[in-house]
Amino acid sequence: MELFTYENIIGIAAGICTSIAMLPQLIKVIKTKETADLSVTMIGVLIVGVSLWVYYGFLQNEVPIILSNSFSVVVNLTLLICWFLFRKKS
């Protein structure tokens, strides 16, 4: 399988765009250590969803799907870890 076909480049570009969508939120949380506005349910569902995309990518042997969604898993797991570390306990 050739990695740099036209289709894979389009897939990788699309994956990069969707994968970096949560980076501004993660950067803000790391800088401010404020997580009150985060929905832990949304983060959890997103982690499950992108993890399933990674699995699907392996089943289909689709490198762009595997790479972009693996990055999303890492970003969202980091956001979830920040939520646990920085949340205010009442």
UniProtKB/TrEMBL annotation:
Primary subcellular site in the record, as a coarse category: membrane
Residue intervals passing through the bilayer: 6-26, 38-59, 65-86
GO cellular component, one term: membrane
A Pfam family assignment: PQ-loop
Compartment list: Membrane
UniProt cross-references to InterPro entries, sorted A to Z: PQ-loop_rpt, SemiSWEET
Molecular-function GO terms, alphabetical: sugar transmembrane transporter activity
Alphabetized UniProt keyword annotations: Membrane, Transmembrane, Transmembrane helix
Organism: Parapedobacter indicus
Recorded coiled-coil stretches: none
This protein's name: MtN3 and saliva related transmembrane protein
Membrane topology of the entry: Multi-pass membrane protein
